[in-house]
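A favour, since you know our C-alpha cells better than I do. What I am after is a single protein written out in full by you. Could you add the entry underneath, on a fresh line?


***
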Amino acid sequence: MVSDRLFTIREEGDAVVILDQSLLPHQYVTRHLKSLADAAHAIRAMLVRGAPLIGVAAAYGVALALKEGAGDESLQHACDTLAATRPTAVNLHWALTRMQRHLRPLPVAQRRAAAWAEARAIAAADAAANRAIGAHGLALIERIAHRPASLMTHCNAGWLATAAWGTALAPVYAAREAGLPVHVYVSETRPRNQGLLTAWELHEAHIPHTLIADNAAGLLLRQGKVDLVIVGADRIAANGDTANKVGTYLKALAAADCGVPFYVAAPTSTIDMACPGGEDIPIEARAGEEVRHVVGLDRHGTPAAVAIAPEATAVANPAFDVTPARLITGIVTERGVLPPGDIRTWFK
C-alpha cells in the first residue's frame, strides 16, 4: 500500500518505533519509545493519533512498562497511566482491557513475552479489520456512476491513524487498487490540522486530492461537487451516535441538507456498547494554545508557531463533537456496512 519507509508503529528490539505525526507534513521523524512514560507522552502529545493507532500504541505501552516488573501492581499502574492520556478514543480503553484480560491469568514470569505477543496481535487485527473496511467501502464507491468519484473526509482516518490501511481512507486505497479513479476533498481540520496529514499521505499514494478550509465544505456539498462523505470515528455509542474530530457534525448536517450520503468508517473495536448515546461520550477539552497559535514553516523553512490571538483571549477547544445516528447513512465496519440507528440489535 505504501513504501517500506512509511509506517506508524513497529517493534525494534525491546523498544517501539513510531512516526512522530506532530511534525508532519513538514518533517519526517521517527521516535523510539523505551518506557511507559514514553508511550504515555506519545499518546497524550499526539505523536501518535487516530483512535485505532492509539489503541495499538497503548498495548505496546503495557509491554514496555512490564520490562521494569510484571506483577499485578505494575500491570495496573501501566493501564491506569495509559488510560488517563486521552478520554474520548474508546480504542485506547478497549486495548487496555484486552491486555489486562490476557495477562492477569498468566504467571508473572510469562507476562512480559505475552504482552509483546498480544500487542503484536492487536496491531495485526487492526490492519486486517481496516483492509476489510476498505473492501466494504469500495462497494459504496463502485455505486457512483461517474468517474472520478468525488469523496470528502474530515480529520485524518488514513493509514497514519491506524496500524495499516486506515478507516475512512481504506476504501480510497481499495478503489485505487481496483483501478477506479477517485478524488478526495480534504478539510484542514483546525486547530491541529490533521487534514494536512491526510493530504500528505494521499500525495505519497499519488491519489488526486484538494485541501480545503473547513468552512468551505458546505458550499462544495451544495454545489454538487461531492458524491459521498466518509469520516472515521473515535467512539460510537450503542445507539449509533458517533464522536469524531470537531467539525464532523457540521459536515453531517450539510450533507443531510444536500442529500449527500454520510458514512462513518471504523472497526468494531470503536463501538462502545457500554455507552448508551452520544450525550454519554466524554469530550476531550484541549489547551487554548492550540487555537491561539498556528504552527507551520517560516519563510526559511524552519518550523515556527505564530500567535493569532492574544494570550488573554478566552478559548474553548473541544477536540471532538458528536454526530447523531439520524444523520449517518451507514457505519462501515470489518463486518460490513451497518445501517444507522441502534447498534445493539446487530451485536446480539
